[in-house]
Amino acid sequence: MKLEIKGLTKRFGSFTANDHIDLTVEPGEIHCLLGENGAGKSTLMNMLYGLLDPTEGEIVADGTPVTFATPGEAIDAGIGMVHQHFMLVPVFTVAENVMLGREQTRGAGVLDRRAASRLVRELSDRYGLAVDPDALVEDLPVGVQQRVEILKALANDAKVLILDEPTAVLTPQEIDELMGIMRGLKEQGTSIIFITHKLREVKAIGDRISVIRRGKVVGTAQPSASEAELAELMVGRSVQLTVDKAAPTAGDVVLEARHVSVVDPRGHLVVKDVSFEARGGEVLGIAGVQGNGQTELIKSLLGLVRPDAGQIFVEGRDISRHGPRQSLEEGIGYVPEDRSHDGFVGSFSVRENLVLDLFRNDEFSRGPVLRRDAIEANARHRIEEFDIRTETMETPVASLSGGNQQKVVVAREFSRPLKVLIASQPTRGVDVGSIEFIHKRIVAERDRGTAVIIVSTELDEIYALSDRIAVMYDGRIVGTVDPSIPREEIGLMMAGASTPAAANGGAA
Amino acid sequence: MKKTARMAMVAGLVALSLTACGERDSEESASDPTSSAPTSEATSEAPSEQFPDFKACIVSDSGGFDDKSFNQTSYAGLTKAAEDYGVQTAEVESNAPSEFGDNINEMVQQGCNSITTVGFLLGDATEAAAKKNKDIDFSIVDFAYEKPQPNVKGLTFNTAEPSFLAGYLAAAKSETGTVGTFGGVNIPTVTIFMNGFYQGVQKYNEDEGADVQVIGWNPETQEGSFTNDFENKTLGQSTAEEMITQGADVIFPVAGPAGLGGLQAAQDNDVKAIWVDTDGCESAAEYCDVLLTSVVKAMDVAVEQAILESAQGTFSSELYEGTLENEGVGLAPFGPEADIDDELASKIDELKQQIIDGEITVE
Amino acid sequence: MSETPNGPAGPAGPGNPGTPPPAGDQGQGTTTQGGVPAGKKEAGRDRDLASWLPTVVDSIAAVVLALVVGAVLIMFSTPRVVESLSYFFSYPWDFFKFSGEAIWDGYRALISGSVGSGTAWTRTLERAAPLICAGLGVSLAFRAGMFNIGAQGQILLGALVGGFIGFHYDLPAGIHLLAALAGALVAGGLWGAIAGVLKARTGAHEVITTIMLNYVGRFTMLYFLGKEALQRPDSDNLLSPPVDDSAAYPTIGGVHLGVLLAVVAALFVWWLLERSTLGFEMRAVGANPDAARTAGMSVARVYVLAMTLAGVLAGLAATMTVLGRQDSLTDQVAGTVGFDAITVALLGRTTPLGTVLAGLLFGALSAGGLSMQGAAGVPPELTQVLQALIVLFVAAPALVRGIFRLRGQGRKADVMATGW
Fold it and tell me: Can you tell me where the transmembrane regions are (chain C) (predicted)?
């Protein structure tokens, strides 16, 4: 199917999220949609999928203008979407999930499971998806669950498949497999709209690249374009993609975790006997696919969850029984992985968020009274220092872009003397310009002698910042390695392989 | 609720009225709305004294005039006075005790000649207003002052007397030898019923050599079963269910609307009950089949009487006490399925006469 | 970054000449915003006048709308208007004349009964004062992330203790008042604290616990009213004596001192929320407890303190009737103030100023509604219908948000922007 988007515009009140977007997706084309978070990619796709009504413009499928009032109509028209967050029923089998909503019955309302199974197997074979129709979805790895989502779309005869940031949850190996599947689909004539902000991926898979910036298509590029060119197009100015950093001058051990184990509220052991050291003046990167215990591990470091076994020391003092407040006072800086969940208060102003964990200090309060002038001066100062783009210091943080939200969190955490900085996914959902800035600040903090721990699922980021890399899989640190190790090897470790070669690379 | 329903009904009528292309009534009814409905009736009945310049007013307690209980019955006295004597009326409903004073004052400002307040909770506010407004006659339902102001009349009801009859009746009709009673809240206006009822049962035991037990009330300790709530029907029902489980086959709930739950329980378990304040076969007709009778407190009669006295200028602060003798209290006609034989009926009449004559004293 | 010409003060909008703002300006930020346009207003509430404006307009519009619907109800609850409909086609003028008169009479009584005279003002203010105090308590708890349904019970306990001290003890004038006042505040505060502690310690939902505590409060009141010590001499009625004059609020400028205390309470709550460290924590916990915890705040402590203060404010509301109007204690002494306070708080968008204004509005409606009943013969239900309509038109979204605990719009919009 040839899909044309002509002058599509979406306004929310006075704000234009999509401004006269023109886009053509040829049959059997992998069309990459590159843009930073908040550039308007999702708005565009939501209009294509019938979730939002366009303010202006039209969608043309094979020469016929179409309108979709609901996703159902979009599906009927041959548009399929794989969401970033899967919409699967975990306790159902693959075949049941694929059939969900369009159940085939045999006579008196009896589900025809066999027919469903057959269809899944057939589709799976045709497109080389390799999925067992009778497996329970909850038993499947994330990468395979994603294939089930793709199967769902294909079962609905999707001619155009929209993949919304599909690689965010995958290991490097799974990403390679996904790309293989995408190529297979393409050969069968399915068009794919591939949404991402990762330059490496568009270059690897795209036939054509459209770059969206601030609601407009600012250009199309060929995959042969360099990453720097693409980044410049995406951000609107030239961007430095690598971080300049001097060799580390690793000092004494500042933070040490000894045999830490954490049981999550559902009773699963999610952190299993983890030990590591973080030294002053050094960045320890913790790599791993999302959901392998990193979240709980760093929460235990700050005292947000109590470790169920093991100890944590800062400069030799046991802090494993501390709550967040004592840990913060101990000199731990913390950039949480989900900033809108626990990094800031969305309805609070920039000014207030900049002192969210500092307002108790004598600088910002006298007894029970907040010192407004000091808080305002601080805000003015930090906004300038960290280049936070906000209308005023009274603007609610929720209405800032992701990058500026993150800068607020970073600015706050960096504005007090730190012994340890723990930053989880410090640049997730952050625009390229802000990534550059945040990375520089993290390195600067390291150079000041702070022990830095970076948790990231993005290997690029781990490589860019780390002086040592610890890889987590299934709640354990499977190895600590030097950043000179090739990506493939780390990729294997992220999938659980603990190679002796890898283990030798690091100190721990 | 009554008025809300009225508003809704009236809104619905509009559609009907619009289609009907009627004629205007007489000039008089169009210009004088307050008397439009009653006039026809008043003129058709025996001509009674008319006081069109007299304004009679009423203030409810927080139950409101739609409480199916003493506010409503008292209010009925006011409307009856308007029908019978052509007086003007005004009323205010209270939502909370803190409003009582304001509400009475509002009635004062509306130029009322007589103001009736309903319930002991208004005692203070009524007395205070009476002190300030000597030219207005006040009457208060269910309350008696130690030293009444000269322009305040307490309207009380010796409901112990008819309750005595009810107790006798209940004991006579009980097959299990157990009858039950419960109250809303342990206050005198409630327990007076229960005391009378108890005595009536004892009278029956004495006369017939029976041993009918009363559960739910102990006159010595003045303690018993209370729902502590006049509104919660469920509480009334569970209290009654409990008594029925203990063998009671006649239930006497003295708990306002909450007592309806007691009737429900009686209906569910196929036992009998006796209603209070109003004739249950009218005010709670769905339960008429379980009712032996009702202990009626003719507040409407008392209120209307007080208004009439005020209008005629014969008002006095002398306490009104409704008794069997002056028919301020009494038993309602027996329920259709009460199955009272003539012998028992005449015995009740006999007892009633003995009370009126003072041969029996009910406390 | 070498170029940072876009200082915070500069208009960083797209139209800024010279340096086009690089990526990540608010143009993008509002994408997140765009998903839920109404959210912006909420997020920026009480921060600047401009963001207040639409809500003020909303509220006024709601009042006007309610009065219009009310007018129709007045029309059709007036017998002669309805009668005139039956001959509408013969004498249509009657219908309009009578309707006009009925509405005019009704609303004139509403105005004159609420603000038309000194007495009317007194009545309005004295009815508004308890609503404001209890409403402030609901607002405060709401801002700390709790839906406090328990003002009613807190008022009852405050009234019980304050009233008891007021009539049972014999103390010198000023001290007696202070003791009764303190008793009411402490009792209300403790009652509120129970729900706070239960939530902080066990996670028990405050909506459930406060509702239950309302029942417990009422039966506690009834229990004590049954005791001789609380009843009037020679009376078995569940009615206490009024407080001694030495424990009553003095009257200042036609209204009792409590009205002034309500204003002081509003100022205090404003100061607490906007200027104090505790208020900062409360608002943070209310808006995002996870972030507050991560920032080292004790969410449990905030819950307990917020509910305690909410109870103290409800206790203050109790003194308005017991010490202000010298009402006797009964099980109905709180009227429906505790529940109306919830509406007042939500109507006032849970800000101190809004709560005061909403409280005044409800006080005026209550005072004026009385005159409508008395002077214009409008059914008393109409006042309640008016109040309900106003709330329906303006506060329903706030109510829904409160019940379903929807977080700030940022979160919701994130789902829209990335989840789909």
Answer: 56-76, 149-169, 175-195, 207-226, 246-273, 302-323, 329-348, 355-373, 385-404
